[in-house]
Amino acid sequence: MGLARASAMIAAGTLASRVSGLARTMVLVAAVGSVGRAGDAFGTANQLPNSIYQVISAGILTGVIVPQVVRVSAQKDGGHAFLQKILTLGATLMAVITIAATLAAPLFVDLFASNYSGPQRALATSFAYWCIPQLFFYGMFALLGEILNARKVFGPYAWAPVINNVVSIAGFVAFIVIFGGDQTEVSAWTTPMIVVLAGCATLGIVAQLVVLMAFWRRLGIPLRPDFHWRGMGLGAMRNLASWTLVTTLIGQLVGIVQQRTMSEASGDFPSVFASQNAWLVYMVPYSVLILAIGTPYFTRLSEHAAAGRHDELRGDISQSIRTLGFFVVAATAAVAAAAVPASRMFSNSADSAVLIAPVLVGYLVSLIPMAVLYIVQRTFYAYGDARTPFVFTVVQGALVLVFTLLIAAFAPQEHITSLVALAQSTAGIAQTMLATVLLRRKIGPLGLGPTWLALVRFGVVAAVAGAAGWGTYLLLGSSEGWMLANRFTGAAGAVIVASVVGVVYVAILALLRAPEVKAAIARIRR
């Protein structure tokens, strides 16, 4: 499958996943509210399996599994024997870790949200017992999906989360029908309410794994246990995984400090749940663009590195960053201009939307640098180097930690969450700059001069387009207008504002005869 077709397959699936994910969150907010202690309790509990999964699996899968699968695919059996062993090993580890983490649910809640009151902490713990089992299914879904990606089967991994969202939406709608919506008061929650809400969230994760397993059978690789792990190179993988594990652990430790800081604002101001919803909006362009375009490139970068084709690898780095830049710069301007109506989709009032919008803008500051970092970081992984990403992640983590502690000490509660988001973005920019310098030292000149100039050109045009989108928002009434009347008008308003930005952006670049416009249109058509 070519890069354009693979990117289109991933983008289409990811877009469907993210759009259905937005709908899922809108229903969830209708059930538990956007700013309140019950919503923050659920947000904390439902984030736990993701956070633990990131520590245990994410870095190892991305940094270790994909390059290994690319290498063993050249074996006579296509690497089938190796894949059976790695799946058995992964399932065993995830099962043991999931059981231990579920038993430790009260400790994890205290770790992430020590500022919660006794009743709010108890509610979060009850949610956690139902949510943490998601960890096993997240891990197996990611393991199967990364193997499929490494073998250039990109579609199922991108599309399966849609099933998760459909199942969750059905469950949350049932919750509202049975128990009513806007359940923000901790004292109102009963055991059946907890079981329905958190149980349906977990059932959605199970469903997406089942779908992926159905596609897995088409590869002809049996899902049989194979515990003969000796001789599969665990020593080499362990050395590589140790760096990615520590790298991810640092990020999660910093995340704990961030969540504990944001939890101080729980109740009256945007806090943990509002931050997660803003992050969800941020992840729409990140997933649809950065992951969709970057994932096929990562597979090809791994192939170039394994074959020693260094010139081709440098060319792909430049091409991928430039392609990503064209789309991501426009997306940043569009979402920033539409931040308030977009936030209204995940809030129960116009006032809450205005409070949440700065959180979204704070995260958006890093969207463009994260596109560059995605490619740079995975180039290190393609060369089997997980130590250098550890170095620049430590720097980023240290900066976030310092910024967050300053925010906790001096910021007023109403601004804590938006400042935490901005602090993360600022540290991410520094991380990207350092990572690029270190990559140049590793493989020599990257030849990115024309690429940086293209990004600057995109940025200037996007600023003009963003101003046009913001002007549209003001002309249509701003916070007093129809856009903030309800969630659906918020969605419509966000689409209108973002569309204005996109049209102006493309029109200006077309008038300037930017070559990227023609290439982007061709990519979209393919």
TrEMBL record:
<feature type="transmembrane region" description="Helical">
    <location>
        <begin position="157"/>
        <end position="181"/>
    </location>
</feature>
<keyword id="KW-0573">Peptidoglycan synthesis</keyword>
<feature type="transmembrane region" description="Helical">
    <location>
        <begin position="388"/>
        <end position="410"/>
    </location>
</feature>
<feature type="transmembrane region" description="Helical">
    <location>
        <begin position="416"/>
        <end position="439"/>
    </location>
</feature>
<dbReference type="Pfam" id="PF03023">
    <property type="entry name" value="MurJ"/>
</dbReference>
<feature type="transmembrane region" description="Helical">
    <location>
        <begin position="278"/>
        <end position="299"/>
    </location>
</feature>
<keyword id="KW-0133">Cell shape</keyword>
<keyword id="KW-1003">Cell membrane</keyword>
<keyword id="KW-0812">Transmembrane</keyword>
<feature type="transmembrane region" description="Helical">
    <location>
        <begin position="86"/>
        <end position="107"/>
    </location>
</feature>
<feature type="transmembrane region" description="Helical">
    <location>
        <begin position="488"/>
        <end position="512"/>
    </location>
</feature>
<feature type="transmembrane region" description="Helical">
    <location>
        <begin position="352"/>
        <end position="376"/>
    </location>
</feature>
<feature type="transmembrane region" description="Helical">
    <location>
        <begin position="451"/>
        <end position="476"/>
    </location>
</feature>
<feature type="transmembrane region" description="Helical">
    <location>
        <begin position="193"/>
        <end position="216"/>
    </location>
</feature>
<keyword id="KW-0472">Membrane</keyword>
<feature type="transmembrane region" description="Helical">
    <location>
        <begin position="52"/>
        <end position="74"/>
    </location>
</feature>
<dbReference type="InterPro" id="IPR004268">
    <property type="entry name" value="MurJ"/>
</dbReference>
<feature type="transmembrane region" description="Helical">
    <location>
        <begin position="237"/>
        <end position="258"/>
    </location>
</feature>
<protein>
    <recommendedName>
        <fullName>Murein biosynthesis integral membrane protein MurJ</fullName>
    </recommendedName>
</protein>
<feature type="transmembrane region" description="Helical">
    <location>
        <begin position="127"/>
        <end position="145"/>
    </location>
</feature>
<keyword id="KW-1133">Transmembrane helix</keyword>
<dbReference type="InterPro" id="IPR051050">
    <property type="entry name" value="Lipid_II_flippase_MurJ/MviN"/>
</dbReference>
<feature type="transmembrane region" description="Helical">
    <location>
        <begin position="320"/>
        <end position="340"/>
    </location>
</feature>
